[in-house]
């Protein structure tokens, strides 16, 4: 298994072994599990509440917008923590400070846009 393609063969073999182990575990689970379906077990589960009505329900778009804003702030925090750790390192001072203010400026523009579109009002 020496040579250029030898490492690829090794990776492919390990991948095949991993897939075989997972497939074997799923197959063994299917063989060993009890299967006693009843009408109560086959109904839709909704947090312990019996399902009422049809499956179509409308939801407000603003919930998705709040989710997107949360994701933006989570990504902002992910970028702020490493920046804070290397800010004091030699040679990174002014450059990283300017880069972070540009990044925070883009985040602030997004917040101002959401504020002007009245997305942040909860009514």
Automatic annotation (TrEMBL):
The keyword Transport applies. InterPro entries: NADH_UbQ/plastoQ_OxRdtase_su3, NDAH_ubi_oxred_su3_sf. Its EC number is 7.1.1.-. It is a multi-pass membrane protein. Its main location: membrane. The chain crosses the membrane at residues 6-28, 63-86, 92-115. It comes from the Bacteria. It is found in: Cell membrane; Membrane. The keyword Nucleotide-binding does not apply. It catalyses: a quinone + NADH + 5 H(+)(in) = a quinol + NAD(+) + 4 H(+)(out). Gene3D superfamilies: NADH:ubiquinone/plastoquinone oxidoreductase, chain 3. One of its GO terms (cellular component) is NADH dehydrogenase complex. One of its GO terms (molecular function) is quinone binding. Belongs to the complex I subunit 3 family. This is NADH-quinone oxidoreductase subunit. It comes from Nonomuraea longispora.
